[in-house]
Amino acid sequence: MIYLKKISLLLAFTMILFCFTGCQSQENTSLKRERQKPKAASVAFSSAIEETEDGVNVVYLGVGVDKDGKITYLSINLNEFKGDDTNVMSVKEQGESYGLCYEGYKGDWRDQMEAFEDYAIGKSMTIDQLLETELDENGVPVEDSDLFAACEIDLHLAMEALESAKDKMHKMDTYSPVISQYVYRTEDGFELSIMLNTKDQYEKIKYVEIEQYDIIGHEAIRKNEEEIEKLEDGILGLTNYEVCHLETYDAGDGIHNSLPMENSFLGDISINIGFLKEMYRKI
Predict the structure, then answer these.
(1) Could you give the CA distance from residue 73 to residue 153 in angstroms, rounded to a whole number?
(2) Which end of the chain is more exposed for a tag (fewer CB within 10 A), N or C?
(3) pLDDT single digits (tens) 60-118
(4) Residue 104 lies in a domain
(5) Element spanning 61, H or E
(6) What percentage of residues in the chain have a pLDDT greater than 70?
(7) Residue 15 located in a structural domain
């Protein structure tokens, strides 16, 4: 009897462990992909914005290529703004809860976009070659293509962002490129911050590009460009951990609640940097 009880307890523990690790694996799929460490000789960050019936869609991507122009890194994400119905998580973060996986056998939006990314990297494509991907009138890969077997989502905004990225590649050897985002609700709508971060061989930030927008109704308005440029320069050479633990203070005016400390190396920056710390916590 004691032996049977031990067996039962062991089986129960095994099932709990299986369920826990299974859920962990499913939830962290995109995060694990982003934490892979590809190397790139040139990188770029770009976004594309589209007004919709409900509000605004913002697609953004990071792309890296080797010295021969072959894509070694590609990550594309989407935030949809729909007024009161907005989900502040990106579509990749939403995973299966986005609901697309229930409409067909090709998986959720994240799965299908990652299939597109893997298609580009696996075939050692250049950006120009990827831009030649044939899409139908809805922005979906044509049915007789290899890509259609795994991807049936609208790619037209992704292609628009990729076209823009092609013209602003930064030549530098970098490691571990990763994109991140953070959405904050405001009185008038939302504040969207998006970025590409790369590191050197010592895990220090080597290149970072950040964009920030006010999302109000059907508009996405770029903002804080000069301050963000100073912020990008200021955090070069730091680790992700150091950015997450930057000291800030609340000015007490109800607006500036995460300003860099005045006597710090970021003391001349006059915008809240809470968004930056949140983006780095995700990566």
Answers:
(1) 20
(2) N
(3) 999 999 999 999 999 999 999 999 999 999 999 999 888 776 556 688 999 999 999 99
(4) yes
(5) strand 56-65
(6) 86
(7) no
